[in-house]
Amino acid sequence: MAIKKMKPTTPAQRGMTSQDFDVITTKRPVKSLLVAQKQKAGRNNTGRITSRHRGGGARKFLRNVNFNLPEGEYTVREIEYAPDRSARLARVQHENGDLHYIHAPNGLKKDQKIQVASVEKSVAIETGNRLSLKDIPTGATIHNIEITKGKGAQAVRAAGARAQLTAKEGDYAMVKMPSGEVRRFRLECMATIGAVGNEQHQNIKIGSAGRKRHMGIRPQTRGVAMNAADHPHGGGDGGAHGTGKPPRTPWGQLTLGYRTRRRKSTNKMIVKSRHDAKRRK
Known about the structure:
The protein is mainly β. Helices cover 4% and strands 25% of the residues. It folds into two domains: 21-199, SH3 type barrels, CATH 2.30.30.30; 221-281, Ribosomal protein L2, domain 3, CATH 4.10.950.
């Protein structure tokens, strides 16, 4: 995928870039695999805003992505755009005729054959094929990794994401994650060969406020522009003196370097933290 620059006919388009849609082969999705996205504007079931700066935006139809494909051989029918995901989707057809959506690996082409391994039979180590970690050679690039056996792909699913199988010890495989963290996975967990496509997604420049509104993201007011009663950064004499304090959220929680990860149950699976390299620097 390449990045397309806009012709600067307006000030907003001068720094704006867009995605290259050359790899997309169709604009018509499978209706039976669509779900209309309900607009909640960041509110929960009680009507309270739990995710700020959300609302509006273009109407979206979500694609039902199957992260736990049944075993067998598939044919790639189309490569499609997904409005709710950074990755491209591949419309694949099982040998029994059923259609599914999966994340399109980098380099996957229309009419290509991919396979999902079974318990009894493994498959070739080729891009798009899905098999258990015990059958994948050390050093291979993988994505869509299961954390819990049988639950389907849970890790390494974003556009351009890739992980590397670095070692196998006992019942576990050591996988280097995109963040640099080394994590253990059970050998019977499934993974897909290759990296997720649309790798240039992170380099796109939005360029205009209206484009963000189309995405359903509303404006955000800076804390330093508020009164002292509304934000820890607010108030003051126009910036004549430095803040002298680390940045915080409107509720006083630290925003830089403050760890908010609550899921401690999987800490035992982390072999090397992604923070170790930063500490050495």
